[in-house]
C-alpha cells in the first residue's frame, strides 16, 4: 500500500513512455490534508532541523514503523529534491485536526473546508504556476517525437532505451 503514489506513478510513466518523456513533464501531487503538528515536523525535517525522536519503548518503535508505512510527505521531500525545479507541485493543506477518510461530522468537515480554503489563498501563486505548466504548449520537436513514438507504437515497434 502506498499513501502517496507519486513516485510509483513516475516509475510507471518511465516504463511506459521512456525516461525522455519525463524530462518535459509536470507532476502534480494532491494530498488529503495533514495535521498541523505533522506539517510542522516535515517543514523542520526539510530544513534539517527535526528533533531526534528515537524512542526506546516498543510502543515508540511500533508507532515509528506505522508512521513510516503511512508516510506521504517523505515521498514528497524526496521528489522535491530529485525533480527539476518548477516541474513538481505538491498540494497538501495543513489541517488543524486529523480527520479520518470516512469523516461525516459536519463541524469537522467544515473545519477541513476552512483550512483548505485558507491554504488555497496562501498558495494561489503556486496553483497558478502549476496550471501554467500544465497548459503550456509543447514545442515542435516534442510534438514530432510524440508523433514518431505514437506511430511506432501503432506499428508494434518498441522503443530502444
From TrEMBL:
The keyword Lipid metabolism applies. GO terms for molecular function: calcium-independent phospholipase A2 activity. One of its GO terms (cellular component) is membrane. Keywords: Hydrolase, Lipid degradation, Lipid metabolism. GO terms for biological process: arachidonate metabolic process; lipid catabolic process. PANTHER family: CALCIUM-INDEPENDENT PHOSPHOLIPASE A2-GAMMA (PTHR24185:SF1). This is Uncharacterized protein. It comes from Leptidea sinapis.
